[in-house]
Amino acid sequence: MVHTYKIFWEVLCQKVRVYSQAVMCSGKHNHKDSAERSLGKIRGASQLRHAFKLLDADFFNDSKILEIAKGAKELNIPIYRANRKLVARENGGLHDPSVLIFNPEWTGKEAQGAPKRFSCPTLSDIQKPERDEDIAFMNVLELGHLIKTKQITSQELTRIFLHRLKRYNHVLESVVSVTEELAYDQAKRADELLGQGIFLGPLHGIPYGLKDIIAVPGYKTTWGSETFKDQVLNMEAWVYKRLKSAGAVLVGKLVTGSLAYDDIWFGGRTRNPWNIEEFTTGSSAGPAACTSAGMVPFAIGSETAGSMTYPAARCGVTALRPTFGTVGRTGVMSISESLDKLGPFCRTAADCAFILDVIRGQDPDDLSSRDISLHDPFSVDITKLTVGYLEDAEMEVVQVLQSMGVNVVPFKLNYTVDSVQGILNLTMDVDMLAHFDEWQRSGKDDAYEAQDQWPLELRRARIVPAVDYLQAQRARGKLIQEVRKNFMVDAFIGNATDWERVCMGNLVGMPVIVVPTGFKSISDPPSANSRRRTTITTGIYAPPQHDHIALALALAYQSVTDHHKQRPPIDDLGPDDFIPNPPRVMYPPRQLRL
Fold this sequence. Notes:
Helix content is 40%, strand content 12%. By secondary structure, it is α/β, with parallel strands linked by helices. Helix 6 (154-172) packs antiparallel against helix 7, helix 13 (420-435) crosses helix 16 and helix 13 (420-435) packs across helix 17 (499-508). It is globular and about 95 Å long.
């Protein structure tokens, strides 16, 4: 494939030179030279035509092809270079965002005024466990109660999670940087405020982790890549500012797959705490694995196309991919400005609600973010909802919600657009290349950790015509209209990792919450008594800007089940169990499916 691209550009440049030389030599040698020039033009046009086939544009006649080549050299290329000089010198898309803004809103009505905040349920009779292990698997609301009632200090809590990050990282390969000094400073400040009678809310003094595409001053933001492993961005990401202002304590920068692709990074490959022979899949690998293993109470990850849903499902944690535009992305490495979203990995749906409430809102430097008006998920009357279930839905969830008064009905989300997966891949790859143009041009992609991932995809993206990129966005618009028309329920339940659904949901910008629903035995266990498990999860989907509906249904389900409370066997795999090296279980990278 790379060889084909090189041939394309070599032929194009060579034939432009041939044509230019032919024009410059006109008038010399008259008849003989004229015949040679004509023959040269014919040959040049013929060879260029092969190159134009890669653009699906070989319908031009010979004279038009030569005319295009001349215009490209004289007009287009100087414009390309001028634009790159202005905005593409730095990688990552941290500056100079596109003015083309995607808005997932279906009604056309923008929220007026500041969004109303969610209510926070109160707890009573929560006592501090004796063992640190038990404290580590408490949810955010419970930990917040311990801090508020001064049964534990933020500094004590921070010590517990810093210890766990260091203890389990060598097994899971899920942590890039432990932010120990910053963590103790922030924890001390949280304790001092509480001593003054100031309680900032449910995240006051609560440790957490950030996916390592999110910038924090004074610490490396590696993007998971060998090329950027020493990079320090002296800027505060907007989401980090929001969490800091709520009193949360950053204890670690957690693994992202290299340049936010899959689970391979410069330090290894992140493993699943429920079955550490497996890998997590998805680039929010560190947030999912660390939350699952009790290394942090919650973490912030990101999704462009499955980077939250896949690792959440694999690691058996609750995670919310919110409506596009709900959470600001300033200071976050960008893949696609119309697809990237930030969201929480947690133990419970309630924790997801608290954290979303803190981090949501309009980021003045992110043109796609907005103040989205969400109702309080703790106040939603689920008995007034009609919820569809797809053929691949976990029926236990359907039955539990039905028993709680929800009107559940069979459902199928119909649309006629048959190129959904192709639209997402083309959009994502071209957008990513715009943010990493210099990286490719300078040959840094040769050092990338997995050559069959971004390097291959972005080389292909280099020759996507602008007109066909825009046609893909028009097709995306058609998809959105059809999904909107056929979304005839308040929410629906279905597999969270179906690739077609992942692509559709991200293109539309709809929220989904991944919910643990059970476990099953791993295939081919090394011993009959192995405690390793395969997690079972489902997704609850809602229309854009109806995250509260998905959250309310997940809250209801988790109020009467305990799948989300189970702990992975990272300390004791069971009698006669072992982890082979290299692992027997291998998972192929994401592939383009048309």
